[in-house]
Amino acid sequence: MVDRVLRPVVIEALLTWEQIRSGVRYNPTAPAVQQDPYPLYDRLRRKDPIHWSELTRGWMVSRYADADRVLRDHRTFGNAGREYGYTPYVSLLDMDPPDHTRLRALVSQAFTPRVVARLAPQIRRTCHDLLDRVDPARFDLIRGLAFPLPVIVIADLLGVPAHHQDQFEVWSREAARSVEPALSGVQVARVRTAFDELRTYLGDLITHYRQHPRDNLLSGLVEAEAGGDRLTSEDVLMTALLLLVAGHETTRNLLGNGVLALLRYPMQLHRLRKEPGLRESAVHEMLRFDAPVQLDGRIARRNTLVDGQPIAEGQRVVVLIGAANRDPDAFDRPNVFDVGRADRRHLAFGRGIHYCLGSPLALLEGRLAVTALLDRFPTLRLLEEPTYLDTVVLRGVRSLWVGR
Q1: Average pLDDT, whole number, for the chain?
Q2: Among 19, 41, 124, 394, which is disulfide-ready with 323 (CB 3.0 to 4.6 Å)?
Q3: Contact 283/250 with Cβ under 8 angstroms?
């Protein structure tokens, strides 16, 4: 999406023209924007809510109502052919009906509340096992909890044996980069190598579970059937890879961004300690306030209008989830972090037919991880101000040093 080959002088010229034309420039790779994109989002909503970006060559949608409409209207704004990131396979996220309808119906059978609920005791146990290993006086929450937890959970969900999980973590780290639109040649090569090795490994695991079914997601996907239709081995493989990419880095960022918000708003942290019943709403507020996924792309399937702006068939439309989640027309005091916020209409899990299948698992992981952290560290505090990753689609801190 963002072309890093462009020379800085060309980028500056494009952005200058963009600002003259619209009153605002959109450069998601600027360090200041990566550290804090919300002032830019505010300018976009006020000055040019349907904004043509010269760098991304697409329309950036920043208001909640428009974003909600684009995500829901899959007949006008499709996913197929959107050329999004460097993911070297076609998954549910890249499909439109009828292919999407068929595959999602089958996958949904295996990703049931029963499967997710079964994971709760192990997620809780894993949280405490990971926190047992950290130095309570000073530790990196990302390395100690937020990064390994979702990898372990996904590995267990798929049925990856425990003695293979260290290698699975390495593959996960590289595969998660695939959704980013601006990678170096070296990074792209590492992503592709990770996917090649994952394909081989998971392909062998799928073959094993076809012959020896177990109570895990891979076996469930293999056995799923609807109207006489079954998933092919390639369908199962692509779904497993999607779960790995979509469920790993996003949960890492949910925990990192969310705990950081709690530590920056001590009154909210105190309230959450006093009212544990708010922990589910607190996780939703973490997702709204600093969304792990900041944008989602679509392709216009026909000529259309969004808030009066003509959009031509074939043009890219990018929903700025982070901006929509802070829209004052949709949320009361949107820039205030409120663990008791009752309004859960945030767009962190998307909308419409592509609403995140893994949302129950993400919410469960978030709630259990925050619970374990608050129970184990009654005086948890922030030791260093973090810096954010230099990513465009995903938003998360590099490290989060905390302690008692």
Answers
A1: 89
A2: 41
A3: no
Question: Between vectors from CA 56 to CA 186 and to CA 75, what angle results, nearest 5°?
Answer: 115
Contact present, 392 and 3 (Cβ < 8 Å): no
Query: Cβ distance 252 to 142 under 8 Å?
Result: yes
Question: What would the 3-class secondary structure string for the chain be?
Answer: CCCCCCCHHHHHHHHHHHHHHHCCCCCCCCHHHHHCCHHHHHHHHHHCCEEEECCCCEEEECCHHHHHHHHHCCCCEECCCCCCCCCCCCCHHHCCCCHHHHHHHHHHHHCCHHHHHHCHHHHHHHHHHHHHCCCCCCEEHHHHHHCHHHHHHHHHHHCCCHHHHHHHHHHHHHHHHHHCCCCCHHHHHHHHHHHHHHHHHHHHHHHHHHHCCCCCHHHHHHHCEECCEECCHHHHHHHHHHHHHHHHHHHHHHHHHHHHHHHHCHHHHHHHHHCHHHHHHHHHHHHHHCCCECEEEEEECCCEEECCEEECCCCEEEEEHHHHCCCCCCCCCCCCCCCCCCCCCCCCCCCHHHCCCCHHHHHHHHHHHHHHHHHHCCCCEECCCCCECCCCCECCECCCEEEC
For residue 310, cis peptide bond before it (omega within 30 degrees of 0): no
pTM of the model: 0.91
CA distance 145 to 119: 17
Q: Left, alpha or beta for 229 (phi > 0: left; psi -120 to 50: alpha)?
A: beta
> In angstroms, rounded to a whole number, what is the distance separating the alpha carbons of residues 84 and 91?
12
CA atoms within 13 A on the CB side of 364: 21
For the chain, the distance separating the N- and C-terminal CA atoms, rounded to the nearest angstrom, is 42
Q: Where does the pLDDT of residue 104 fall: very low under 50, low under 70, confident under 90, or very high at 90 and above?
A: confident
As a whole number of angstroms, the distance between CA 307 and CA 262 comes to 35
pLDDT tens readout for residues 251-276:
999 999 999 999 999 999 999 999 99
**Residue 350 falls in which region: left (phi positive, over 0), alpha (psi -120 to 50) or beta:** left
Residue pair 380/145 in contact by the 8 Å Cβ criterion: no
As beta bridge partners, residue 397 has 388
Residues 6+ apart with CB under 8 A from 160: 168, 205
Note the pLDDT tens digit of each residue in 148-200.
999 899 888 888 888 888 888 888 878 877 777 767 778 888 888 888 888 89
Evaluated on CA atoms 320, 321, 322, 328, the torsion sign reads positive
